[in-house]
Amino acid sequence: MHSTNLLLEEPIRMASILEPSKPTFFPAMTKIVGTLGPKSRSVEIISSCLESGMSVARFDFSWGDAEFHQETLENLRTAVKKSKKLCAVMLDTGGPELQVVNKSEHPISLQVDSLVVLTPDQDKEATPNLLPINFSGLSKSVKKGDTIFIGQYLFTGSETTSVWLEVTEVKGEDVVCLIKNSATLAGPLYTLHVSQIRIELPTLTDKDKKVISSWAVRNKIDILSLSYTRNAEDVRHAREFLSKLGDLNQTQIFAKIENVEGMGNFDEILAEADGIILSRGNLGIDLPPEKVFLFQKAAVHRCNMAGKPAVVTRVVDSMTDNLRPTRAEATDVANAVLDGSDAILLGAETLRGLYPVETISTVGKICAEAEKVYNQDVYFKRAVKCVGEPMTHLESIASSAVRAAIKVKASVIICFTSSGRAARLLAKYRPPMPVLSVVIPRLQTNQLRWTFSGAFQARQSLIVRGIFPILADPRHPAESTNATDESILKVALDHGKTAGVIKPHDRVVVFQKVGDSSVVKIIELEN
C-alpha cells in the first residue's frame, strides 16, 4: 500500500505556538472513543468524559460480564441526559482472543531466562512455571522459535507488566517457552498474542454471538467493533448475523485490523466494512516497529479516499498512570490527525486509567491544534483526483459544497440527511468548518408497528471527523415555506448560534435535497 505525505499548512508563525488555545463548544473535529470500565463508569465521571469530548462509548466484552456492562450503560444514559451530549455505543467483541487464566488473581513473577509452560488445562493454578490458557489448539499452531507475547488486559508495552516468550519445545498440548524479560503479571486475565500465526478460531465466536443476541439487541448498539477481522467474509458473516436481529440491521460494523492476515486483505475488508479500527497494540507485535507507521499512513489514506471512518488506537498509554502524555505520545496523536484519522480510540487509558477525564481532554486539545495546520487544500485535490470522473451526482454536489464553504469562508455547513450518507460525503472532503448534520426521521414499518428512523444514523455520525448531528423533529418541514420559526433550518441555525459556531453576519452553506435534486445554498446571516 502506498500513500504520499500530507504537508502542514505554511507558514506557521512561531509566536502563534505560544498563544493559549481558545476553548470551543466542539473541542475538536476529530472524535474520541472512550472505553468505559472500572475507573470510568460512574455517572459523574462519564458526564465529565462527555463534556471533555468523548462522543463514542466503547464496551469491551473481552472482559467483564453483561451485568457489569449493563450497569455502566445505564449510567451512560443518565450522563447523556444530564450533560445533553449525544453519545454512540460501540460493542467490541472478544473475538478469537487467547487469554492466560489466573483464577487466584495473585501476581505472577516471571524471571528472564527461565522456562514456563503454557497449558490448555484451566483447572491448574497459574504459577511462575505454569500458565493455563483458554485454547487447546496452541500446540498445533506454533513451532520452535515462534514469539508469544503476554500482557494484562491490553498490551502496555511496558517490560514490567508484559512479557515476551520464545517457543523452545512443544509437548503434546503443552508449549514450553523461554522467558525473554522479567515481568510481573497482576490480575485475573492476560491477553496472549502469537506473532504472525493464524489461530484456527472463528472471528465471531459463539460467546460473541450470545452477547450480541442478548446485550446488543436489548441496547440497540450503534457500532459493532469486529475484533481480529481477517478477511471480507468475516464482515459479511457478522452483517448477516446482525440482519436477523431486529434493529441491529442498522448497526454499523467496524473491522478491527489486528494482524498480518487482516493487513493482507485490507482492501477487501475496507470495501465491505463501514469503518476501520487500526489496533496498533497487536499490529505493533505482528509488525516490525519501523513498519507500523507505514501501515497506519497507508491504511488511513485508503479509508479517507473511500469515505469511511478510520480509527487509531494506542496513542497515550502512559496516561493510564500519569497526568501528562510523553512528548512522543503527544506528537503521535497529532500525526494521527494529520494522517487523516477520524477518531482516536482510548483503551486502557480510560478503562482502568487513573485520569480518564484528563486523558480525553488532553487528546482533544492535541487534536484541535493539529487540525489548525491540516492542509485541507492538498487533501481536497487528492480526494477529487482519486474519485475521478465522472463523479456521482451526490459526490459532485458534496465536494462542490465543501469548496464553496471554503471560498466564502463559511462558519458552518448545514446538511439535511435521512441516511447520513450526504453528511459522510461532505466529511470525506474534510471541510475546515463543522458540518451540522440535521437527520430527518423517516416513518418506517416492519408490518407490525410504525417507527421513526434517524436515531441510529445521528449517533453513528459521532465517530466521523467534523460531523455534529442533530436529530430533527419529524413534524417540522425540511425548509420553511412560510417563514415560520418552526423550520428545521432555523432550528439548526439556532443550535449553531447556541454552540457559538455561528455569529451575526456569518455565511452558512446549506446542502439539501429538494425533490430529486441536490441543492447547495449560501446564506448570509443578519443580526
TrEMBL record:
Reported cofactor(s): K(+)
Q: In which pathway does it act?
A: Carbohydrate degradation; glycolysis; pyruvate from D-glyceraldehyde 3-phosphate: step 5/5
From what superkingdom does this record's organism come? Eukaryota
Q: Which UniProt keywords apply?
A: ATP-binding, Glycolysis, Kinase, Magnesium, Metal-binding, Nucleotide-binding, Pyruvate, Transferase
Asked whether the UniProt record includes Metal-binding among its keywords, one would answer: yes
Q: Where is the Pyruvate kinase barrel domain?
A: 30-360
Pyruvate kinase C-terminal domain sequence ranges:
395-515
A GO MF term: kinase activity
Q: What is its EC number?
A: 2.7.1.40
Catalytic reactions of this protein: pyruvate + ATP = phosphoenolpyruvate + ADP + H(+)
Q: Which EC class heads this enzyme's classification?
A: transferase
The record's Pfam families line, in alphabetical order, gives: PK (PF00224), PK_C (PF02887)
Query: What SUPFAM superfamilies does this protein's entry cite?
Result: Phosphoenolpyruvate/pyruvate domain, PK beta-barrel domain-like, PK C-terminal domain-like
NCBIfam families reported for this sequence:
pyruv_kin
Family statement? Belongs to the pyruvate kinase family.
What is the protein named? Pyruvate kinase
